[in-house]
Design goal:
The protein is of the alpha/beta class. The chain has 14 helices and 13 strands. It folds into two domains: about 120 residues, Alpha-Beta Complex (Aspartate Aminotransferase, domain 1); about 250 residues, Type I PLP-dependent aspartate aminotransferase-like (Major domain) (Aspartate Aminotransferase, domain 2, 3-Layer(aba) Sandwich). The strands form four sheets. Strands 2-10-9-8-7-3-4 form a seven-stranded mixed sheet, with helices on both faces.
Length: about 400
């Protein structure tokens, strides 16, 4: 039977990781993999998370299963962190998931269960795994234009023009903040226009919130998600703790669903529990419990927020430095948008051939569409990247 299987295409980012590992050059620079790194190239365990893990180590007396939906305290704390009371609690349903990717996958599963004929609209470009997951689940994908590579900004007129084609019951996938891969975000005024359009179309918004706290701050980065939550009878929200808590390998995420009323929310909750049971039964607990422990302890929460601010401000500093170095190296303002973008990523607008030259001639690795991970840089490597970019233009 297995001989009928066909080889699957390699994930481009995973392929890039292997190419970087195989490169013997000592001065190579990895801007491809989407994880936060400090100035030394390390993805550190956050202080508050390490303290929480110590607390768990000292007090945990069992490894038995927790709830099918995940530890209830985690669900409650994450609802508060993301929505801050924007929606009545009795309209909310949620499950803990293995990372944000698990939340995205189960959100698409739930959408298909609710409306097998729905089309899922994604921004062009979007995180590559979005499209892969949607197609694998078996729902059609449509794209709405999002990014103007020349200006390095959101092409808002194109966003509205394309979303005007959405049909009632379609799912529209929105990046809550720190758009991946472009780093370009909508303003709150633009969000209001998108919301009004999707309300008129009777679409179902689905928010992917993977980088809360990496852009303008925890509350600022959740503002669009909260506005969407308040504006629709039904919303899906997939969120990740991988970045803002640094628990990548521990796979801590959450899927929240907003229903029209309390009675429907109970049915939705039952369907979310069913999806967990069918997919992996009980969700993993260690990373989830560490996040919960941090958020339930005032001192740990304060230390976590302080370290997250250090991380965020460090990336903003690198953005400003890179924009300035690129201005000097290219003698133009072509790349000034890098300083205006938010989150870990920016899309430089280089061709695949130029990206290949950066890799082959300079040992600088980035995704073929020229997405760079700002956190892969430090103050010493920023000028090196700027000079290399100028050389391949």
């Amino acid at each position: 039977m297995l001989e009928a299987l066909k080889a699957q295409p390699q994930d481009k980012i995973l392929q890039l990781i292997q190419m970087f590992k195989d490169d013997p050059r000592g001065d190579k620079i990895d801007l491809g993999v989407g994880v936060y790194k400090d100035a030394t190239g390390l993805t550190p365990v956050m202080r508050a998370v390490k303290a929480a893990e110590k607390k768990i180590w000292d007090t945990q007396d069992s490894k038995t299963y927790t709830a099918l939906t995940g530890e209830p305290g985690y669900n409650m704390e994450m609802r508060q962190l993301i929505l801050d009371g924007a929606v009545a609690a009795d309209r909310l349903s949620s499950i803990a998931t293995p990372g944000g990717t698990g939340a995205v996958r189960l959100a698409i599963d739930l959408a298909k269960m609710a409306n097998p004929g729905a089309t899922v609209w994604v921004s062009k470009p979007t995180w590559g795994n979005h499209i892969s997951i949607i197609k694998f689940v078996g729902l059609p994908v449509a794209e709405y234009r999002y990014f103007d590579a020349v200006s390095g900004a959101v092409d808002f007129a194109a966003v509205l023009e394309d979303l005007a084609q959405v049909k009632a019951g379609d799912v529209v996938l929105l990046h809550g903040c720190c758009h991946n891969p472009t780093g370009a975000n909508l303003t709150l005024d633009q969000w209001a226009e998108v919301i009004a359009l999707l309300q008129a179309k009777q679409a179902l918004p689905m928010v992917d919130l993977a980088y809360q706290g990496f852009g303008d701050g925890l509350d600022e980065d959740a503002a669009a998600t909260r506005l969407i939550a308040q504006s629709f009878p039904e919303v899906l929200i997939a969120a990740s703790c991988s970045k803002n808590f640094g628990v990548y390998r521990d796979r801590a995420g959450i899927l929240m669903a907003i229903s029209a009323d309390a009675e429907q929310a109970k049915i939705t909750q039952g369907n979310l529990s069913f999806l967990n049971r069918q997919t992996y039964s009980f969700p993993p607990d260690h990373g989830i419990r560490a996040v919960m422990t941090v958020l339930q302890d005032a001192d740990l929460t304060a230390d976590w927020k302080a370290e997250l601010e250090e991380t965020r401000n460090g990336m903003l500093g690198l953005r400003a430095q890179l924009a300035e170095e690129l201005r000097k190296a290219t003698n133009s303002d072509r790349f000034d948008f890098v300083a205006r973008h938010r989150g870990m990523f920016s899309l430089l607008g280089l061709t695949e051939a130029q990206v290949a030259r950066l890799r082959e001639e300079f040992g600088i690795y980035m995704v073929s569409d020229s997405r760079i991970n700002i956190a892969g840089l430090n103050v010493a490597t920023v000028p090196i990247l700027a000079r290399a970019v100028a050389a391949v233009l």
